[in-house]
Amino acid sequence: DGEYEQAISYVDQALGLEPDSPKYLLKAGELLMASSAFDRAIDLLDRVVGMQPWNHAAMYSLGRAQLSAGIAAGTDTIARSEQLREAHTAIALAEEYAVENPTSFRRQVAYADLLRNAGRLGEALRAYQTSAALQPADLNVQNNIATLFARMGQPGRAEVIYRRILAADSTHAQAWLNLALLDFGRGNNAAAIRALASAERHADGRSAILEAISRVRQRQSD
Predict the structure, then answer these.
(1) Measured between alpha carbons, how far is 64 from 118 in angstroms, rounded to an integer?
(2) DSSP string covering 141-196
(3) pLDDT tens digits, residue range 151-185?
(4) What's the CA gap between 117 and 148, in Å, rounded?
(5) Which segment of 71-75, 130-134, 148-152, 184-188 scores lowest on mean pLDDT?
(6) Would you list the DSSP string of 41-110?
């Protein structure tokens, strides 16, 4: 017990210097769990998961803490941590392939796609930018870069790229759709409606885009 208390004291000091450090929050949460301070452990581990939803170790520890505190949802949390662990393994393998094949556009995009799907947006952005450097004319990669900027709170940068895509290919339905979402989010409803109509006009029967357009229109009418 004395060793745990001393360790927690050290971690608390570190958190005092870096209160939003996922590394220190995770360590503190695990130490608190080991000393049966489950409620406080859950609070800290939940913060880590909020900051890093892909962190399978934090998700697993959170699930264990929840179960120890008698919270049944811990079972689902642990199951989710296993899914994240498997995704982490796939990402690590894709990263290895990307590093070993730095001039392979396909390898770089595959790595970026996995990062994006895991919610690791900053890393995904850098990986897509590496892909774009290999094939600057690939508009789908440019679209992914713009969408990540939008998701990361930089709509201005996203708009510049969407408009650059549409200047190169005015029939790029996904870019029109994403520009519409951007405009709706900024309250530019008239521009958004026009962009949505362009997306529908150029969807060319693609069900995923048409379904997304339908969902956007439904949200706007609610």
Answers:
(1) 22
(2) HHHHHHHHHHHTT-HHHHHHHHHHHHHH-TT-HHHHHHHHHHHHHHT-HHHHHHHH
(3) 999 999 999 999 999 999 999 999 999 999 999 99
(4) 11
(5) 184-188
(6) HHHHHHHHHHH-TT-HHHHHHHHHHHHHTT-TTHHHHHHHHHHHHHHHHHHHHHHHHHHH-TT-HHHHHH
